[in-house]
Amino acid sequence: MNYERESADPKRSMWAAALVGVGVMAGVDEIIFHQVLSWHHFYDGSTTEIGLLSDGLLHAAELISIVAGFFMLLDLKRSRTLVKARAWAGFFLALGGFQLFDGFIDHKVLRLHQIRYVNNLLPYDIAWNLGGLILLLIGFYLLRRAKNMESKEVAF
Amino acid sequence: MQHHSQHSLPGSSISEWIPLLVIGGVALAYVYAFTHTRKQKGTWNGWHTVSFMCGICLLGVAMLPKLMQWAHQDLRGHMVQHLLIGMFAPLFLVLGAPITLALKALPTKLARNVTAILRSRMFYLVSHPITAFILNIGGMYLLYLTPLYLRSLTNPYLHYAIHLHFLLAGYLFVWSMVGLDPVPKRPSILLRVLVLFVSIAAHAFLSKFMYAYLYPLNSPYSSIEIREAAKLMYYWGDLSELLLTIALFSLWYQKRGLRKGEVVRPVP
To answer: A75: which residues sit within 8 A by CB, 6+ positions away?
Structure first.
């Protein structure tokens, strides 16, 4: 049987999965580093009021983005416009991008909290940001592959 | 914990059961309307009923005399009660669509009056997400950051008024987000998501602020107790907001499906 098929939507697929990626990374951070390892603190005495406010805004953005992304993916799947390769690329780009954002902006610029409260923080910072970079590179690799696949499809 | 307040809730008098009786009455009215309309039209999704009863149970737990006593002496108890009354119960009550049910069950003349209210400009303004947000979150900021909380400890009427405010403002806020009852026009989903975003951020900020600076100030509670209460507010508030966000986006998903006509399309 033939069903009317809408054209695929690579951009939206990528954005939807990226929203989920941001939320997942934030969730991993929250669950593993706050709850399981308790390396991070709920609040460390030095955080300013502006820091608390930006923390709240970031938290709200994460919570909404994971739900929004999830329902956008569902919607794309329902209308059969989901491009899976693009979605995976978006997911990994967001994982890596958020990890680096957290590592540089939250930890270093805003100084919301540190990864762990030890004397020599450098190895932790390097591992954290290197991890982010690797995830980001995986995302770029997946994106290139997805684009190659798309151009081949057009060629046929 | 020291006995800090002038008035104590009377030990086992009837008055402390009054809120529970009222809640029970509402539940009975709902069940009556539900059984009544089923026979008539049979167009009622059973999940509304389940949701409403969940909301009633949560509200009932929050109003148990034992919990009331705990909430009166301990900020953590107060926070549990506040979360149940102002955040969790309203979500389930709104998804129970009691106003829609009332419209079906009420005599035509009364139902028309209710519809007229729902259609009025006044109702639109009051139930607008921004108004509801100010009433809901604004109320919390007022309670915890001003001496209002301390005064509510010594004034039982104020105490009950605050609970009632939390319930009504919480209901209004959830309704402005995911209310199912028929109204002529509603603010766009995008606006609702934006207001929800600000609301989640404001709630997270308030609880961390209370944690950091030990609000409510000059309260009879230890800093440990205040911090634990603030953490309860942060994490459990989060869960209720997550549920509300899921409800809002599933509404968006349903509407989008209806618009595109995807629902009727067969699955290959």
So the answer is: B253, B256, B257
Counting Cβ atoms within 10 Å, is residue B155 exposed (0-12), middle (13-18) or buried (19+)? middle
A46 contact B CB<8A: no
Asked if A12 and A76 touch (Cβ cutoff 8 Å), the reply is yes
Say if residue A14's pLDDT is above 50: yes
Cα gap A51→A45, rounded to integer Å: 11
Provide the 3-class DSSP secondary structure of residue A4: coil
CA distance A90 to A97: 10
> How far out from the chain centre does Cα B161 lie?
15
Give pLDDT tens digits for B233-256: 999 999 999 999 999 999 999 999
Does B6 reside within a domain?
no
B50 domain residue, yes or no: yes
What residue segments make up the domains of chain A, in order of their start?
A: 26-155
Range of the domain at B149: 17-256
Quick: pLDDT tens for B175-203. 999 999 989 999 999 999 999 999 999 99
> Does residue B221 contact residue A43 with C-beta atoms inside 8 Å?
no
| ipTM value greater than 0.90 | no
Residue A10: which of A142, A138, A101 has the closest Cα?
A142
Is B254 part of the contact surface with chain A (CB cutoff 8 Å)?
A: no
Length of chain B: 268
Task: Give domain status of residue B261, yes or no.
Answer: no
Euclidean distance between CA atoms A29 and A38, whole angstroms:
11
- Of B212, B246, B252, Cβ closest to residue A52: B212
A52, A63, A79: residue with CB nearest B200 = A63
Count of structural domains, chain B? 1
